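Lecture 7 notes. Example A: sequence first, then its structure tokens.
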Amino acid sequence: MSRPALLAPSLISADFSRLGAEIDAVLAAGADMIHYDVMDNHYVPNLSIGPLVLSSLRRAGCRAEFDVHLMVEPVDDLVEEFARAGARTLIVHPAATRHLDRTLARIRALGCRAGLALNPADGLEALGYERDALDVVLVMTVNPGFAGQTFLPHVLPKIRALRRWIDDGVSPVRLEVDGGIDARTIVEARRAGAEAFVAGSAVFGQSDSAAALRALRRAVAEADGEGLAGAG
């Protein structure tokens, strides 16, 4: 049976001069959550937004589920700050903390879902013994740091392997993909077993974000019509 597909437009491609309106528009158009990319110009070669923006959005009444992807090193202090700012999911990279198990446990203790991000060159060994500590695995289908990159198809076997790894376990883990997702590549990622899809320029970068989200939904339906490879 197909797992429901979750669409997560990424704020990194939004118009920051009208951020609240942009979020409201994609939520009204059917987005399931908002992906919030945090870059530090250290772990990745770019600089983006911090917890102050999220806190401001919450104070303005934004009730979106924010999927916060922390591409920062060191990461632990920001885990605390984003939890206070109103994050619901916090995703970290294994190389960004010295004590991954402690970081994941702290995220859950703060009342958030704990996620682990795998870069294209990261193997499944990066997951270690953390299956029961995880709520989300985010597979990067580009090298992190910039919006608008091209999907890397050589990551698809990793998504399939992760689908099997998740299905072989007891605890539910959401399999999410991020990078180069559009109406074509979402079909490939869905067939490989992904269930949540981060899309930046394919949604916020379009003149009609509602039409863009509908196109992604149709593409997922096309993929589901042919079955999910590796799904249990």
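Example B, a different protein, same format:
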Amino acid sequence: MQIQINTDKNVAGREAFSDQVKDVHEHVLKRFSEHVTRVEVHISDENSDKSGISDKRCLM
């Protein structure tokens, strides 16, 4: 299964964060690997001018 992680320019630590997200998704989606060939994950910071954890968006 191919997992592609996309982040916007406002997500800090893009490469390390992307690797962590990919590892989690590989583990969770492992049981579907015979049926799913590709997953795209888009992570963005909805309001980058303010800090906080609740302003992140994940779209699969």
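Note on Example B: Residues 14-29 form the longest helix (16 residues). The chain is about 25% helix and 30% strand.
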